[in-house]
Amino acid sequence: MTSSPPTRPVAPSQPGFIELFTPKLITVLREGYRWPHLRADALAGLSVAIVALPLSTAIAIASGVTPDRGLYTAIVGGLLISLLGGSRFQIGGPAGAFIVLVATTVHTHGLDGLLLAVFLSGLLLMALGFLRLGTYVKYLPYPVTIGFTAGIGVIIFTSQIKELLGLTLAGPEPGPFLEKLPALWAALPTVHLPTLGLSALTIALLVGLKRWRPHWPGLLIAIALTSALAAVFNLPVETIGSRFGGIPTGLPAPHLPDLSWAKVQAVMPAAVSFALLGAIESLLSAVVADSMTGRNHRSNCELVAQGIANMGSSVFGGICVTGTIARTATNVRAGAHGPMAGVFHALTLLAFILVAAPLGDRIPLAALAGVLAILAWNMVERHAITTLVRASWGDAVVLLATLGLTVLRDLTEAILIGFALGALVFIRRMSQATEVEALTPLIPGDRADGAPAERTPYDARAAQNRSVAVYRITGAFFFGAAASVGSALERIADAHSTLIIDFSAVPFLDSTAAKTIEGLAQKAERRGRTLVLTGASIPVRRALLAHGVRPPLVTFAPSIEDALPPAPEAAAP
């Protein structure tokens, strides 16, 4: 009876281009989209729109633009993200994380420069998606993410102190954090009590409703109640209508921003910052949605959709658009079935500006400042910060450096330096986890599983060959550990005629480590020593061979037992 030849494991096939970039909306529709699904998405979209309406206007005002541009962003950008995105539940719109960057860009380059930067960031996001770099965004260290998010929260809160208290400053409000605080302190005697009362009421309503009635639309209730109080009692407070002239009753005509080369060069740093933060924020939001639903998003498809959405938002006069964690989580909790919920969210906001825009004119700016104060408070993840500070000094340094640079310098610098510090901390930890372990004399427990009892144990064989040293490298063998491992192995090789190095516990080996072994082998050959490498996996062996670590310079063996000299024959009785 002949046995069938063993079958080789089949490697999983890589997804093709169409599969990677098919929007989730098409996937949902292919599954079968029926009336219950439509109803669930419509109700979820309405719930999200109730949250997005005050947030979009508040974020736009805090970013230094008019409130209508926040609504344009949520409508156009949110619609495109839901139609083309790689997440079932992602809700797009303006995000608090962009307030600092947008405000700085408007101050430096004007509104035209901002729109061009948003448009260019869309092109960059599309490039990131088509180059399939979306999976790499998740490698941003967690302390960096927590640090810059908390720093943005601090900046947002300080930017709203003037509106919360109704202060009258002697001059324009300074932008830098350290210049802003003295100016606000000097203006404290000008506190406007009606403004302070409305902002305090808004915060109290939002906190109270979240605690005692979490399923109620707290944002809508707080904004509606404070607007009604301001109108009924004719309170002398600023509103959207009094400062900005109201909200337009329709979308503006689309037009491309100024694409002159000089302008492109000027705003490119801002565009890169928008793209980087947009990729991080949107993919984090998609991951949150996945964790809440058990679904999986298509990261590269999502980046392409984010890019198209930012280009569309810019063309219609909107600001940066990204996936928003709070609104996406609201969408999931509201029972959304798929991306149509985001479509209904955008259409509901469009219906508002077409039909009920005059109602938005009565919203007090103090109430929107209260909304942003709560948003800023929630961005400072206090539990995560406490955990990271207590966990290790390395995580604490990365977190505090990122937070401090975000507040005192700028977001791009904070992310780059935070990432670099996080990488250094990781390298140090990995290098400490890599060690060289002596296996001479070896213990009997190192025998191969199932070996016969009469077999000569490794330790006896090694003891009979005192010129043989057996060592095992454990952990990732890379540039961070190459120097210490290499020096240890050289000292060992000087004392023995044969050095066996076991690589069975090395999951990864980089070019620096391979070069270290190559140098050790060259030195051993010059001194007449023998170097044997055992247990190397195929990738590790391939890396060694690529750097010249090959016979006759070294000898490869499957295991330590195969590399040891045979035991001498026992003397006859």
Number of strands: 7
Tally of individual helices: 25
Q: What structural class do you assign from the helix and strand content? A: mainly alpha
What proportion of the residues form beta strands (DSSP E)? 5-15%
Poorly predicted sequence stretches spanning 5 or more consecutive residues: 6-11, 442-446, 452-458
Q: Rough shape? A: elongated
Strand order of the largest sheet: 3-4-5-6-7
Q: What is the typical, i.e. mean, pLDDT?
A: 87
Largest sheet: 5 strands, mixed
Helix content: 55-70%
Number of domains: 2
Please report the distance between the alpha carbons of the first and last residues: 46 Å
Brief summary of the model shown:
The protein is mainly alpha-helical and 573 residues long. The protein is 62% helix and 5% strand. It is elongated, with a radius of gyration of 31 Å.
Write structural notes for this entry.
By secondary structure, this protein is mainly α. Helices cover 62% and strands 5% of the residues. It is built from 25 helices and seven strands. Helix 23 (511-526) links the parallel strand 5 and strand 6 (530-534). Helix 4 (67-84) packs antiparallel against helix 13 (299-315), helix 4 packs antiparallel against helix 15 and helix 6 (142-159) runs antiparallel to helix 20 (411-433). The longest helix is centred in the middle third of the chain and has 33 residues, at 261-293.
Supply the key terms.
573 residues, mainly alpha, Transcription Regulator spoIIAA, 2 domains, five-stranded mixed β-sheet, two-stranded antiparallel sheet, 25 helices
